[in-house]
Amino acid sequence: MQDLTATRVSIPGVIGPYDAYVHLGDQWNGFARPLFALDTVREIAAHTQILADEGGCNSVVTAHVIDGDPDSEGMPRAVVLTVNWQFWDQDGGASKVTTVAESTAEGLYPVGGSSWTWEIETWTCACQESNPWHLAVCHCGQPRDRQPAVPLEAATWTAGATLRRLAPGTTAALVELLDGHARIVGVFAGETEIDTADDTGPFDCETLGEADEILRLATDEAAPGDLDAAGWVPVETEHAGRLFRVTFPAGEHGRYPLDYMPRPIPAPRSSQKPPGVPIQRAV
Known about the structure:
Layout: E1 5-11, E2 15-22, E3 27-28, E4 31-32, H1 38-55, E5 61-68, E6 77-84, H2 88-91, H3 94-97, E7 98-101, E8 119-120, E9 122-124, E10 130-132, H4 151-164, E11 172-178, E12 181-189, E13 192-194, H5 205-221, H6 226-229, E14 233-235, E15 242-247
Antiparallel strand pairs: 1-2, 1-8, 3-4, 5-6, 6-7, 9-10, 11-12, 11-15, 12-13, 14-15
Helix pairs in contact: 4-5
């Protein structure tokens, strides 16, 4: 798979996402030209045929897999093709609207690679940076497969990034919960406590207040069990409220970039695909 990048692609609102391989930078009219394993091609074919059943053949380009016997080395043989039914009359029948997708040396198939509007899937980090699927770690240092489990965890990360604007080495904080209000009472770089006094430490009242407010809003909406899920560790204390140690995730080189600015966490977007939407050729 030399020079191929594993990623995921879709035609937004129509089909996908699917696992795929791409040559980064190789595009058709600005769209990706993915290659698919045969099992994935079967998924694509099944989905396009469902769309054709729902909306009629003229509304969709269908994909098909015709299986043969294994070759002399025992490898599966298959013919992969697409049919652009809407141009049957205009282009002159089956031979003009049928495209055979030849397998590459790696056994991958370029389904719709020069006619379908494939786009590389993206994922959104807790820092709200959008990344292509094949970028497994965000610029802030957080991996795609280790994102917040609950909204309170996302808010904790954002509060940490807020503190790191003025103290990049910040790794943890002590947070007091009193009468439902969250308040940061200590900030740490490793095991060393950072001075939080407005006139002698790196912080100002506005930054600490901003971090407090992020945590307060999140704890107001937290469900039972969210404190544990967000990694808030109870600390025995004589404070009137409950005290927790929260550890902020380490970004690149143990910190977020200095120019990182946290942004609000949006509501999740529905991933449901509307039925019967045609696959369009780009003009």
